[in-house]
Amino acid sequence: MRWDLDALFPGGSGSEDFQRYLAEIREQLAGLKARIASLDETADLDRFCEIADGMESAIVKVLQANAFVGCLLAQNTADKKAAMLRGQVSEDLSEYYRLLAVLDEKIKAVDDSLWEEWLRDGRLREIAFVLNERREQAKEKLSASEEAIIQNLSVDGYQAWGNLYDRLVGDMVIPVEVNGEKKGLSCGQAENLFSDPDREVRKRVFESWEKAWAEKGDYFAEALNHLAGFRLNVYKSRKWEDVLKEPLMLNRMKRETLAAMWSAVEENKGPFVEYLNRKAKMLGLEKLSWYDLNAPLGKTERKIPYAEAAETVIAQFGKFSERMASFAKRAFENRWIEAEDRPGKQPGGFCTSFPDSRQTRIFMTYSGTLPNVFTLAHELGHAFHSHVLEEERPFNRLYGMNVAETASTFAEMIVADHALKNAKTDEEKLYLLDDKIARSVTFFMNIHARFLFETRFYDERKKGPVSVRRLNEIMEGAQKEAYCHALAEYHPLFWASKLHFYVTDVPFYNFPYTFGYLFSMGLYARALEEGRGFEGRYIALLKDTAAMTVEDLAKKHLNADLTNKEFWNSAARLCARDVEEFLRLTEKWS
Ligand SMILES: [Zn+2]
């Protein structure tokens, strides 16, 4: 159950091979820097192709180094040498992005007709979409020197607000009384108690939780207003009027697609309202409150040994794709998965790829529960995505956030559905169904509320800073609308407690989640219809995830139009099917 990192670089954080590898990267980046600097807009195609090749081979190495350091730190959070290495590799990554920005500026200056000619060249045709996208985006931005000033100022004027938020949250203590004993909990610990079976516990934690966020509300409002203000000012300088321009660009999607998706979500909320009402009855309530949403229903105490989990995952993958199954088998056999349950490990799970070695590693803590099995399948789905992309050019592997969860959700769905069909007791079935539907509720309602809030907040922020009282109002309004007024109490301070509103690398860190979930559902629906016959098309789609817009991706591989509600409706209906089964299973509470 321990992964093998020595196969990549022997010796862990003390690896000499890795030191040599880092030195090679430095040398390569320095060479590229000189070559890019000497490139001018009339430079010949051969020199540009050489630079593009160099940039592709450099990103493969930098990402490989970054993945190695990430794995070292995850397996042992106290590894000081690994922490030092992290700093070095971060420096290389920043240098790489600086070089890309300089290159963008160079290609922006290339004459249009010459550029067209370049892209038709056999050496560039495959990566034409990505190169052209970079050039178009560079044109939409300010000059390189102006953008560089923004970048530099953002460290203390933008990122700093995000860092300050993290500090404030890290220091927060939520006072809670459990079994007569007073305790001070961290935010993460308090949040875990929202899935406590005892309603009194959930309610008390929630009251204390709201109070704690309210006490520091002015500070959070300050941070949120400045983050948004900075963004709006940058947009204004670039003459970008729509706050959604940047997030849509990063996700390679059209505004019409976003509108079609949300409208399908709105139209298909009915079953989820029924689910919330039924869950309320089962808990003896008239209506659920915010802190009841994660209350557990049913139960499963089944323990699944790791070897059995591996067998199940491989067998279920095999029903849809032989390649997926054999890939998973290879991952288990070659010890690509760190699954051991021991102290000193980072929490959570992730999948990271080592593109230079054409290998991946998965990190998680396996303690034998059913959700652990689903996580295993989820991460193997990510790994399979990286695996099929290894055959593509490095520039064609950097997919957007909205398609990042396609393969993982797909893989997880296969295994979760199998578990549901083979539930040992009604209690276990209820547990699994509730877990699955609660997830849909998150994407249909919670994420929708975040999107509504953020859109409205930005509208008001354009006119000036928004007060705590007003932020609470906007949030509660958004939640009521998104949850169709189905709850008794809401969480007005959610704008303060949710980290995603303060993330500085991606704006509107919400709709890509719902997109990804429904997109995978749409794919899964096709896979169910076509069985093994879907494999070829599925793999072809994954290979193209970073080489075109999402609209073109769906058109090419699914013959679907994402700007039309119909695609999203069919995916949403598939989610609603779980609710029908849930209502049947819990009929005695109707
Ligand atoms: Zn994932």
Automatic annotation (TrEMBL):
SUPFAM superfamilies: Metalloproteases ('zincins'), catalytic domain. Residues 107-172 form the Oligopeptidase F N-terminal domain. GO terms for biological process: proteolysis. Residues 194-544 form the Peptidase M3A/M3B catalytic domain. Pfam families: Peptidase_M3, Peptidase_M3_N. Its cofactor is Zn(2+). GO terms for molecular function: metal ion binding; metallocarboxypeptidase activity; metalloendopeptidase activity. Binds 1 zinc ion. Keywords: Hydrolase, Metal-binding, Metalloprotease, Protease, Zinc. Belongs to the peptidase M3 family. PANTHER family: CARBOXYPEPTIDASE 1, METAL-DEPENDENT CARBOXYPEPTIDASE. This is Oligoendopeptidase. It comes from Caldibacillus debilis.
